Amino acid sequence: MLPTVAIVGRPNVGKSTLFNRLVGKKLALVDDQPGVTRDRREGEAHLLGLDFTIIDTAGYEDEDPHSLPGRMRMQTQAAVENCDVALFMVDARAGITPLDEEIARWLREGDAPVILVANKAEGKATEAGVMEAFILGLGEPIPFSAEHGQGLADLFQALLPYLEREDGEEHEKEFYEDEESAPLKLAIVGRPNAGKSTLINRLLGENRLLTGPEAGITRDSIAVDWMWTSYEGEERPVRLIDTAGMRKRAKVQDKLEKLAVSDGLNAVNFAEVVVLLLDATRGLEAQDLRIADKVLEEGRALIVALNKWDTVEHGSALYQGIKQALFDGLAQVRGVPIMTVSAATGKGLDDLIKVAFETRTAWSQRISTGVLNRWFEAALEANPPPAPAGKRIKLRYITQNKTRPPTFVLFGTRLDELPESYRRYLVNGIRKELGFGAVPVRLTLRSAKNPYAK
């Protein structure tokens, strides 16, 4: 395991900007308004050859523990309790505030070593703000600019004593022999208040993600590494990805919500299997089908999970209704797994993870050219391609050129005249006969070029 560094500070001092700079990607949402970050977010940081896990936390606010800012503060406190060193960030332009002093008192009482970072310290005008930071009693502040990358060498020198291994060995990275043993990248998506964060917390057995009655709490897509124990007692790694609730596009007016939804869709691209979580008490809505369609369009394997099933009445009729609506609404992929779960009680969650691993196996499999073409010949014999205007369409052979998602190339002549219905017949045959089930399958048509065409 890499050592961990937590970034703490009041809202809008530049914590997420520093996080993004250290991980080398724009993972955390950044905006001028305060309080953008709510959950703690982890990433692998690299600083001049030093590797560590960096944790971005919510802005520390002195509010009631039961309020949303109060619950955010508890997430920040949990991050600091479990880190190797804390980076306390203040704003050198604004100077030291009473809230900065309160955070400093809390950090001094804890066990974690603290490095003081005076951010936004560009130019001589901020020197007074940097000097003022000495009053916090946390040693010499590091003048820094997360926006422009100034002060990285000083930050490296300050972190080195806490993160360097005594034996001089580098921290080991995990390597996996094959895709099956690698962590399952599992994203949870859905409308606001479907219970996505609650479900992940139940799997982890801790309040890792911020939850509550308010809709739209989650903004950043948060990835958490977890080890699942199968029924047989085998431990398998999973990377759980929580995403922001996705409302109808017409309802999304707030800039931050647009950023959060965009971040969630980006998380879908990096996932292998996506769970569309529905609130079973509200049934299936048009927005759920839009989300499902987007997941399949990106070529991800899809599972539908009906949450809050423990509170549902007339479950059998509801289940059949949702199943039929999905069958009608997702014509491109029939038979998507539908699971009934309860994030509140944990019922059905083990089965959900088991099905997710099985779905990834189908999504990742490669069919040999021999098996594929034996199936292809039988499919052509059972249902030959049509002959528009009396001219035969010749289908010569098929090959699988990609996995994840499974992608096939069909070679022949006059393929531009092949009806969509026949293409669907072949895709459905691949799914049914070759063991791909309900994962999205892509079929590309490629005609041989005629050297005498011109």
TrEMBL record:
<dbReference type="Pfam" id="PF01926">
    <property type="entry name" value="MMR_HSR1"/>
</dbReference>
<keyword id="KW-0690">Ribosome biogenesis</keyword>
<dbReference type="InterPro" id="IPR027417">
    <property type="entry name" value="P-loop_NTPase"/>
</dbReference>
<dbReference type="Pfam" id="PF14714">
    <property type="entry name" value="KH_dom-like"/>
</dbReference>
<dbReference type="GO" id="GO:0005525">
    <property type="term" value="F:GTP binding"/>
</dbReference>
<dbReference type="InterPro" id="IPR005225">
    <property type="entry name" value="Small_GTP-bd"/>
</dbReference>
<feature type="binding site">
    <location>
        <begin position="190"/>
        <end position="197"/>
    </location>
    <ligand>
        <name>GTP 2</name>
    </ligand>
</feature>
<dbReference type="InterPro" id="IPR016484">
    <property type="entry name" value="GTPase_Der"/>
</dbReference>
<dbReference type="InterPro" id="IPR015946">
    <property type="entry name" value="KH_dom-like_a/b"/>
</dbReference>
<dbReference type="InterPro" id="IPR006073">
    <property type="entry name" value="GTP-bd"/>
</dbReference>
<feature type="binding site">
    <location>
        <begin position="242"/>
        <end position="246"/>
    </location>
    <ligand>
        <name>GTP 2</name>
    </ligand>
</feature>
<comment type="subunit">
    <text>Associates with the 50S ribosomal subunit.</text>
</comment>
<keyword id="KW-0677">Repeat</keyword>
<protein>
    <recommendedName>
        <fullName>GTPase Der</fullName>
    </recommendedName>
</protein>
<dbReference type="InterPro" id="IPR031166">
    <property type="entry name" value="G_ENGA"/>
</dbReference>
<feature type="binding site">
    <location>
        <begin position="119"/>
        <end position="122"/>
    </location>
    <ligand>
        <name>GTP 1</name>
    </ligand>
</feature>
<feature type="domain" description="EngA-type G">
    <location>
        <begin position="184"/>
        <end position="364"/>
    </location>
</feature>
<keyword id="KW-0547">Nucleotide-binding</keyword>
<dbReference type="InterPro" id="IPR032859">
    <property type="entry name" value="KH_dom-like"/>
</dbReference>
<comment type="function">
    <text>GTPase that plays an essential role in the late steps of ribosome biogenesis.</text>
</comment>
<feature type="binding site">
    <location>
        <begin position="9"/>
        <end position="16"/>
    </location>
    <ligand>
        <name>GTP 1</name>
    </ligand>
</feature>
<dbReference type="GO" id="GO:0042254">
    <property type="term" value="P:ribosome biogenesis"/>
</dbReference>
<feature type="binding site">
    <location>
        <begin position="56"/>
        <end position="60"/>
    </location>
    <ligand>
        <name>GTP 1</name>
    </ligand>
</feature>
<comment type="similarity">
    <text>Belongs to the TRAFAC class TrmE-Era-EngA-EngB-Septin-like GTPase superfamily. EngA (Der) GTPase family.</text>
</comment>
<keyword id="KW-0342">GTP-binding</keyword>
<feature type="domain" description="EngA-type G">
    <location>
        <begin position="3"/>
        <end position="167"/>
    </location>
</feature>
<feature type="binding site">
    <location>
        <begin position="307"/>
        <end position="310"/>
    </location>
    <ligand>
        <name>GTP 2</name>
    </ligand>
</feature>
